[in-house]
């Protein structure tokens, strides 16, 4: 009697469960890597934009000095000593630099010159609950604010800039960057320097801070 050989089964086309899970895992890893890379690019753009803005503020002060042969005087300034101010509205510095002092008794910019005309308008922002360290603007980020008699400048993360002025006119400023001070750069021969705490909103972590100087 002749024995029949078994007919081999043909493997059905398609993926097994393990193969599908492997593919999904690879896609997830690639997506996560792409997202992380995109996040770094966005952060880089924000920081560079904030640096450009800090330099623009510094240039605005220098142009003011060139026109009036004196530096602007923020609200918190003390005569005879260097001034450390901010671009927050209450300091009045931005109002002076853009020529919006109105009918103030002590007009510092009588020509009403807008020295910050190159700074773009700020964007609205919604402050997150996780932004506990950020003491900046609740409403704005990345530019010049001119709304409801509020005149201020904020970086891309919503922080106010700090501005140190050589108000005693000795052509020397203390360096606030602790990393540079540790390297021996304790003084700078500048009339004005501008900086902000950057993405983490912590001034003491200078690694990510925004500065108008190198």
Give Rg in angstroms: 28 Å
Mean of all residue-level pLDDT scores: 87
Low-confidence stretches: none
Gap from first CA to last CA: 96 Å
- In this structure, how is the largest beta sheet organized? 4 strands, antiparallel
Count of separate DSSP helical elements: 3
Spatial strand arrangement across the major sheet? 1-6-9-10
Question: What percent of residues are in strands?
Answer: 15-25%
Determine the structural class based on helices, strands and strand pairing.
alpha+beta
Q: Count every beta strand, where a strand is a DSSP E run of 2 or more residues.
A: 10
Q: How many domains make up the 3D coordinates?
A: 1
The residue fraction in helices comes out at: 25-40%
- Write the element-wise H/E pattern from the N-terminal end onward: HEHEEEEEEHEEE
The dominant shape is elongated
What does this structure look like?
The structure is a single chain. This protein is an alpha+beta fold and 214 residues long. The chain has one domain. Helix content is 29%, strand content 15%. The chain has 3 helices and 10 strands, in the order H-E-H-E-E-E-E-E-E-H-E-E-E. A 4-stranded antiparallel sheet has the order 1-6-9-10, with helices on one face. A hairpin with a 2-residue loop joins strand 4 (143-147) and strand 5. It is elongated and about 85 Å long.
Question: Key features?
Answer:
29% helix; alpha+beta; 10 strands; 214 residues; single chain; two-stranded antiparallel ribbon; 3 helices; four-stranded antiparallel sheet
Write the layout of secondary structure elements.
Layout: H1 17-68, E1 83-86, H2 93-97, E2 123-124, E3 140-141, E4 143-147, E5 150-154, E6 162-165, E7 173-174, H3 178-182, E8 187-188, E9 192-196, E10 210-211
